[in-house]
Amino acid sequence: MRKTAADARSPFRLAWRAFLGNRPAVMGMAIVAGFFTIALAGLVLTSGSHPLLDPREVRLPDKLKQPFARPNREAVPAASLPRLGVYLLGTDELGRDVFARMLEGGFVSLSVGFVAVGIAVGVGLVLGGIAGYYGRSRIGIGRLRLLSVDALLTSLIDVMLSFPSFFLILTVVAVLKPSIWNIMVVIGLTSWEGTARLVRAEVLSLREQEFIHAAQAVGAPGPRVIWRHLVPNSVAPVLVSATLGVAGAILTESSLSFLGFGVPPPAATWGNILSDGKRYIFDAPWLTVIPGTAILVVVLAFNLFGEGLREAFNPKLRER
Amino acid sequence: MFKFVLRALWRKLWTLVVISIVSFGVIHLAPGQPSQIDPMNPRFTKEQLLRYRAAFDLDKPLPVQYGLFYQKLFTGQLRSFKDNQPVIGKIIERAWNSFPLFVVGTILVWCYAFPLGIAAAVRRNSVFDRLTTVLVFALISIPGFYLSYLGIIFVVETFHVDVIGLRTFGRESAGPLAGAMDRVWHLVLPSALGVTAGVAVLSRYVRSQMLEVMGSDYVRTARAKGLDEDAVLYRHALRNGLLPFVTMLGLLLPGLIGGSVIFETIFAWPGIGRLGYEAILGRDYPVVIALNFMAAGLTVLGTLLSDLLYMVVDPRIRL
């Protein structure tokens, strides 16, 4: 396909080129892509009734082995020897293979991050869109029109922002009993405020533009105008903040797991591998260092990637 | 201006009411009535049920329960399930324990974040700027508990001092100087580690704020007048650049009660965060609700204060 001059100067192209010039951000993107691959491979390799790499196989003779240690072939039954013939990342206090557990936990982190942020973005888009588009209409009981939709939704945002979010999440998870779904939903429902604010502000400024008036003039109903015209035009900053949100969600999940309110055992997450390993911090430091470093690298990659996107897609930041 | 203040007050009052409802409603999220004894759960005994009934007036309709709960909380009748102490007194006692962490932490944040952010903005795109950017993101991304363990190992192995808890157990008789040093050692690590993310985030804000001001017209005018660079940066740009951070004085308020759960748990620091964690672990609902409510309430008060402060320092807002 031939490149035209206009093509090369489209806003997306410009932003993309600016993004590629930002080395940390590109590295972040590469690590994020690698993390996706590893997490999905981990799901395939560690699930099923006879997984290739079993994260739950307990081998008491082989407990607290160092990384790259070979299994004790005399004491461990042949059926439960590690498939690779070596403990790549060592074993924990029950002799479980840390490599397999890290692979299993990778997918947990990935899914918690994406589902929680998906929920947050969904709620934020809907509430932000409503607040921006229908903000002026008033609601109330009977004929009393007490307050406008906008006032209601912005004060809801204020309320949610006032709570210490981690403590609130901890409270709700403790009341509801920790499970992976509860954690995803709770993180999602406590982190939509930023998206809602962004969308509301975008919709408020877009609402008065000609293409929206045109859509209204041909009789498009409100939800259609919001969903087909306003949301697609305000989604770029939302996606950027979603990338940063994934980083936050992964960090929150690992903190919850660390405090014992995360995904319940025997499922492995990076947070609970670290939490279990902290008791052996002087004898088996790899149980702390491996999951801790993994969380750091993945969260850092998402943060650098998101920040790079933000800079690239915001001409104001790009030119300065 | 008076009208503006009144309107702000009115809004904050409503926010506070909604916050009180949400905090109270959280425990009703649990499926089923809390009063129904679960025969399978040995920890939920008849005695506990009676205590629960007394604290939450479960036999009354929900709005009445809500009203009575806050009445009891403020009159000091609400007692913790765990040790039967008034909830308010417990929270104040623990907040007092968290206070040194809060003071040292705040000082550290302000002493590091501002110079770091300003230096990065002044030397935009230099090696220093790039390095601090990556470092800042690393500090934001590192899980606090992981950093704490690395810090504990480092300090314990190199300096051979004890850092867990308020002070070293059994060293009370060691004399005032040794005792003071001991307190300092126990204070430094948790407060320094607890604020790393805060330093990182704030220095980013300072940097972008400075960059914005440095790009404005009046700074260019100052340069055109032939002022030397230091005067331009520190007498002209910095003054306006730091304006938004006045609002942070107000936002410090919630820090008084919002001690960090993670760091206080790791360092066995008997502060607010640990009180919250213990209360959640022990299903001590009066304390949990009160903590959520008071932390959110202080945040609202803090934002109100910062709005007012901003109005005082920036005349443009008053219009």
Structure, described:
The complex is a heterodimer of chains A (about 325) and B (about 325). Chain A has about 325 residues and is mainly alpha-helical. In chain A, about 65% of the residues lie in helices and about 0% in strands. Chain A is built from 13 helices and 2 strands. In chain A, strand 1 and strand 2 (about 145-150) form a beta hairpin. The radius of gyration of chain A is 24 Å and the shape is elongated. Chain A starts with a helix and ends with a helix. Chain B is globular, with a radius of gyration of 24 Å. With about 325 residues, chain B is mainly alpha-helical. Chain B has helices spanning about 1-25, 45-55, 60-75, 85-120, 125-140, 145-160, 175-195, 195-215, 215-225, 230-240, 245-250, 260-265, 270-280, 285-315. Classes of the chains: A mainly alpha (about 325), B mainly alpha (about 325). The interface of A and B includes residues 164, 170, 175 and 292 of A.
Which short descriptors sum up this protein?
heterodimer, A: 320 residues, mainly alpha, two-stranded antiparallel ribbon, 13 helices, B: 319 residues, 14 helices, 0% strand, globular
Summary of the model, kept short:
The complex is a heterodimer of chains A (320) and B (319). With 320 residues, chain A is mainly α. Chain A is 66% helix and 1% strand.
